[in-house]
Amino acid sequence: MYSKQEAQQLKQEFWIAFAEKYPRKWLLYDTKIKDFSLKFFVDNKKAQVLIDIEPRNDETRYAYFEKIEALKNILEEDHIQDLVYYRDFTLESGKTISRIFVEKDGLSVSNRNHWDAIFDFLAEKMNALELAFYEFEDYIKDI
Q: What is the distance between the alpha carbons of residues 66 and 75, in angstroms, rounded to a whole number?
């Protein structure tokens, strides 16, 4: 078991190693859509690549979510399979967002032997999400 400081140090080393293996600028928060971002997540159980849709106005949030959901078949065929869609996802903070993600279970950031598998998963899936976003960016933004 790691102390809070050791866990923080390990995560920092993880992200530095990831950036060294995949040295590129990821889209992430630079979608040009307010409160619409692509994210990486990793903990001691899984790795995820996410689309978080976070406008405070539910109508706006649902409109963006429904745009992505309408692309589901195209995304699965041409870009990324096994996406999970949550129209209403409650964060630990209590805030409700919409979330779309793909995950790989059984991977732990605390196990350095898993790092290459996590890096490859994150890079492959984020690359696929970015390509899909760029392809359908105008459609998604038009709400």
A: 14
Q: Report the mean per-residue pLDDT for the chain.
A: 95
In tens, the pLDDT along 102-131 reads 999 999 999 999 999 999 999 999 999 999
Distance CA 135, CA 131 (A): 6
SS3 35: coil
Q: pTM of the predicted model, to two decimals?
A: 0.92
Instruction: Judge whether 41 lies within some domain.
Output: yes
Q: What is the pLDDT of residue 21?
A: 97
Domain that holds residue 31: 27-141
Long-range contacts of 20-28 (CB under 8 A, 24+ apart): 21/116, 21/119, 21/123, 22/119, 22/122, 22/123, 26/126, 26/130, 27/126, 27/130, 27/133
Q: Which residue has the tokens 């539910």?
A: 58
> Which residues lie across from 84 on neighbouring strands?
101
